[in-house]
Design goal:
The complex is a heterodimer of chains A (159) and B (412). Chain A is α+β, with helices and mostly antiparallel strands. Chain A has 5 helices and 5 strands; from the N terminus they run H-H-H-H-E-E-E-E-H-E. The chains are: A alpha+beta (159), B mainly alpha (412).
């Protein structure tokens, strides 16, 4: 900004000097020549920053900061969503007749939720249906995997 | 014939912009009401779930980092804070979410009237000084008789015009400094408000949209404001300086140079704003559609697989998404109020100065001082460029805010 100000002030200086000289020398012989010289000087003053500007433009590098989201808030919101998924899965089991199930979802929480694995604790489970020949561990694993749309290998069943 | 057609086209473009602005504004109000109505409907069903919507919103507000938001209110005076509603940004957000009145008509009216009259009072010494100088010169010119030659009269005239120019420059540079300060203030607002809004957007499920809008925030908050501060304002200064200096004497003519810088300013700002708006329009349409489709597909899949509990899970997720959406919209609205309160003093200041200069130019014309009336009238017209800079950046910020408020409401 200092260079810009001094450039404007130098042009102003030339204009003021030229005007004063014009007032004193109007009608005199040298008046015309001095006016021409001052006009040429004024033009030179005006175009003087152009070469410097062109040089600076070629070597200019813009460094703008990054826009970052609030990671702590996203962690808070997504942890709530994971809690909602856990409640949903528990309710799904209850509606199928599985009671006293504990579900724990381990997920990577950043902008998106990526479920790493799910643990289903069947230690205290109470089944309100005839189990028959059903492999309850496999059934629990399949239900959880289908509900959460994950691989069966990501579901760990504890009995 | 050509001029009539050109004017008609300009009027048509202006009318289209006003219609687009009005449509966007109405749509924002409508989508906010729809979004709030939908979340109220969810509240009825979700009363049995843990927390409920209101508790969810309160938890979200408690987890927002509000230090930077409160810093934005430091520059507001008493009247401005009266319009904004509170010294605390969070309190204003809670009031907006609760549907309370923010900034009633009396406080807004009082705010505008106070700025207008205080600017008018501040202009009076400036107006009277210029009038006094012109009156003095006019008296001296009329009584000179045989006491002074033409050279002396030219010197006196040059001194008067120079003195008027110095007084004029002091006002103009004060306004330019205020403009730079307001642009810096807007930059701070953009860089604090938008990351928060985009975070809420991502939390409410519009992840693609948030990612799409992030470069737009960088363009608006950093590139455009840098263009204004490093190119537009200096160009404006040059056009004003050459305009005034060119009128100091008949021999030194700088009018065309002044017009060149004035045209350059219009081209730079017009191009920058057009490019940003085009970028924003394309990004906004495509990203929002992607989020809407993917989110509805996921919800449809959950609902279809377990029809009984699908509603329960969907409600639970909806609480979190709805809470984030409500807070996002409230932040957007609060930011719009803050924007208007920030730029209103400067806009009124420029308007008062421009009108004062036009009035002065008209009053001084009968004094027949060569060049003074032209200086005042041309500077008054040039101030419109400054007004267009500040209104342009504010308009883009406003449009972007409305776009972010509109986005994500349809995901609920």
């Amino acid at each position: 900004m200092g260079a810009f100000t001094s450039w404007i002030l130098s042009i102003l200086g030339v204009v003021i000097i030229g005007t004063i000289l014009d007032i004193f020398l109007s009608g005199k012989k040298l008046g015309k020549q001095i006016r021409s010289v001052l006009s040429a000087l004024l033009v030179l003053m005006i175009i003087s920053p152009i070469p410097i500007l062109l040089t600076n433009l070629r070597s200019c590098e813009a460094d703008f900061g990054q826009i970052e989201l609030d990671d702590s808030f996203l962690e808070f919101a997504n942890s709530r969503k994971v809690a909602a998924l856990e409640r949903g899965l528990v309710q799904a089991f209850i509606n199928e007749g599985w009671n006293n199930i504990k579900v724990d979802i381990i997920a990577t929480i950043d902008v998106n939720i990526r479920i790493s694995f799910v643990t289903i604790d069947l230690t205290n489970v109470v089944l309100n249906f005839n189990t028959g020949n059903i492999n309850i561990i496999e059934r629990a694993r399949n239900m959880a995997a289908d509900f959460l749309n994950i691989e069966r290998s990501q579901v760990l069943v504890i009995e | 014939m050509y001029n009539v057609k050109k004017n008609s086209i300009k009027k048509l473009i202006l009318l289209l912009i006003i219609l687009l602005f009005t449509f966007n504004f109405v749509q924002t109000i409508e989508s906010f009401m729809i979004g709030y109505a939908r979340t109220s409907h969810i509240e009825i069903n979700a009363n049995q779930t843990t927390g409920g919507l209101n508790q969810n919103v309160e938890d979200i507000l408690n987890n927002i980092n509000n230090g930077d938001l409160n810093d934005l209110l430091n520059d507001l005076d008493g009247y401005g804070l009266g319009v904004f509603g509170s010294r605390n940004f969070m309190d204003t957000l809670r009031a907006i979410i609760a549907g309370e009145d923010i900034g009633d008509f009396n406080s807004v009216f009082g705010f505008l009237i106070n700025i207008f009259f205080s600017d008018l009072v501040r202009m009076l010494p400036f107006i009277l000084a210029i009038l006094g100088i012109c009156a003095t010169f006019s008296i001296i010119s009329s009584v000179k008789g045989g006491f002074s030659s033409d050279s002396v009269e030219n010197i006196i005239r040059f001194a008067c015009v120079s003195l008027i120019s110095v007084i004029l420059f002091s006002q103009i540079f004060s306004i330019i400094s205020s403009t730079a300060s307001v642009v810096n203030n807007l930059t701070r607002q953009i860089n604090i408000v938008f990351p928060l809004i985009l975070t809420m957007m991502a939390a409410s499920g519009a992840v693609s949209t948030a990612a799409s809008y992030t470069p737009a925030v960088a363009i608006l908050g950093q590139i455009l404001t840098t263009i204004i501060l490093t190119i537009a304002l200096p160009t404006f200064i040059l056009s004003i300086v050459f305009d005034v200096v060119g009128n100091l004497s008949d021999t030194v003519r700088l009018k065309k140079l002044s017009s060149f810088f004035s045209s350059t300013l219009k081209w730079v700002m017009g191009t920058a704003f057009f490019v940003f708006l085009a970028f924003l329009s394309v990004r906004g349409i495509t990203a929002s559609v992607r989020d809407t489709i993917s989110l509805r597909t996921a919800r449809f899949a959950i609902n279809n697989y377990v029809p009984i509990i699908g509603g329960y899970l969907s409600e639970g997720m909806n609480l979190i998404m709805a809470g984030s959406t409500i807070v996002k919209n409230a932040i957007g609205f609060a930011a719009i109020i803050l924007l208007l309160v920030t730029i209103a003093p400067l806009v009124i200041n420029i308007m008062v100065l421009s009108l004062s200069l036009s009035l002065l130019g008209a009053i001084i014309e009968p004094f027949n001082i060569n060049g003074v009336s032209d200086i005042l009238t041309s500077v008054s017209k040039s101030l419109k460029s400054l007004l267009s800079i500040i209104l342009g950046i504010s308009f883009l910020y406003f449009i972007f805010l409305m776009l972010t408020i509109n986005t994500g409401n349809m995901l609920i």
